Amino acid sequence: MSTSSATEATGTQAKEPLARILLPKRGEPNDVRMLYLLEAKQNNNRPRWSNRTTVTVPAGAEVSFETYFNAFPAAYWRRWSQLESVVLSVEVEGSATLSFYRSKEDGQRISIAHHDVETGHHEFELPLRNFEDGGLLWFDVSASADTTLRNAAWCAPHAPKPQTLPDGTEYPVQPRKVAVGIPTFNRPTDAVAALDALRSDPFVDDVIEYVLMPDQGNQHPADEPGYAEAVAHFGERFREFRQGNLGGSGGYSRIMFEAIENTDAPYILYMDDDIAIEPDSVYRALQVARFAARPFVVGGEMLNLQERSQLRTTGERVNRADFMWGAAEHAVYDHDFAKYPLRAIGDAQSHLDPKKYDSRALHRRVDVEYNGWWMCLFPRVIAGTIGQPLPLFIKWDDTEYSLRAAANGFPTVTWPGAAIWHMAWADKDDAIDWQAYFHLRNRLIVAALYHEGDVKGITKSIFKSSLKHTMCMEYSTMAIQLEAMKDFLAGPDQLFDILETSLPRIAKIRQNYSDAVILPSASDLPAPTGAPGVPRKNVGGRLGKVKKLPWAAKAALHLLKKEDPAHHTAPQLNLTPEEARWFTLARVDSATVSTAGGTGVAFRKRDRDLARDLVKQTRELLGEIEENFDGLKAQYRAALPELTSRDSWREVFDAQ
After folding, report:
1. Annotated catalytic residue: which of 190, 272, 322, 398?
2. Which GO terms describe its molecular function (predicted)?
3. More exposed terminus of the chain, fewer Cβ within 10 Å: N or C?
4. 427 is catalytic
5. pLDDT tens digits, residue range 594-627?
């Protein structure tokens, strides 16, 4: 077959669907509909659909499936799968032209073929040769008469074949079944909504062998309306586990433990409870895993729950200089498909302007190092080989698991078109609230396990961050980060012991600091007294850092002075989270700062002597970490097998 053609098959070539062509749910706004199909501006009549797999295109109208959920991520299938081609299968009623296209890694569109189709079942086989670095496949529809398309899907031309394990042995083909695990903590409404979403699509429901739900809170899904109906639907496939609050790692570890010990599920899919689900993503991740050339962790992408046409990120890695999360090469953040659909790749003139943005990068394959557990699928063979998650409560457990999997020959791949909607990180305060303890402690633990560079890159990064917390009057954050460093220095033997007790201990420490106390509103305090001359707007661009130098100098002078107690009665400024930057807060003695969710404010008050003491303790503990890091690395690495064993976790679960 030519590399520039889409051949219509004479017989049934499609063996198994890989991804169905989907229509939006009823009632979705236009920006979300653009994740599924694009309507030509010249259309006099709009396409219509009564279900998610059938669409009628009026005579003379055109639609394109060059969209997030319906374009085929050919570069990923070429790189990671057993397939050399893919088949589009579609049932047609009417008369239309199907036009097939592919893109290059820079988004340039290449026409493949045009086929006039009449009523009947049609299949078209397309090669996957031209996608080494990136590229998508898709098709457009131009209707000659009113034309209905049903049950369109990207399909495999053959059944899955055995896979090759890291040691070179063969791993047999696994059934098309998955255990879906959803840990929940005091989100009963969200948990029931997740169960409803999983049972809403019979096609997806058919591949779900088990639904596993650890309930770690005191507000139970079982008390929520709709729970009984959802559980009745799944019947013996549904299993709930009541346990104490062991955090995300405890919830997910329970899912993996139960799936391995008490089911025969060949695949285990993690999903958060506070999400909106595109059900077909479950099926897509499962098929990716089954048709993989070798087993790997299949990560789902995150769409923004508050801006639902926005893709949060296409992939991440760990920066080895400071051992901190960061973008993978060629990755994209916060891409809005409603503003920049996949075809919005600019032109030669716009490419010369660094201020111009387009969608070219979305066509490039991104190779990642880990995937968040908002949606992540594990072949059973990986879980059986490398063990359970670390007992980290929350943060870095997902990163560590992928790093451990990679060390055992199992990479992680973040897969386009398989996604959930989740609250974006920017809409949370987790870098400064109680979670800051886990951010830092667990970062150090995972670094001890996998970092091979100079530890001073890590400690320098931590100290720089601590100085920013000082300038922003985030003393509670600094205080619990001191606890994080102490607990890291205490070694791995106590990790299981403090799994349930760390959060209450940290919460108690935070009560001693005003910046951790959330008031209902700034209106509950006296009106702000003002701070003339204090900058409140960020300076960006090429000269941004230079322009901030005088601000830094003035901030340093202010921080050396004793604070004015008068400003601790009435705030000088009321700030939004976006305005609460170091160059503003370091020039005042008090300010209210709204929470990221807009539910209240923290009244921050500068305390020079407290800040000095916190910085001094930070510097001392970082010095201790530098001095003992090699020994700590040896301790944590030696303890890893026990920390991740099912027997160790069994003791934890049996004690619940």
Report:
1. 398
2. glycosyltransferase activity
3. N
4. no
5. 998 888 999 999 999 999 999 999 999 999 999 9
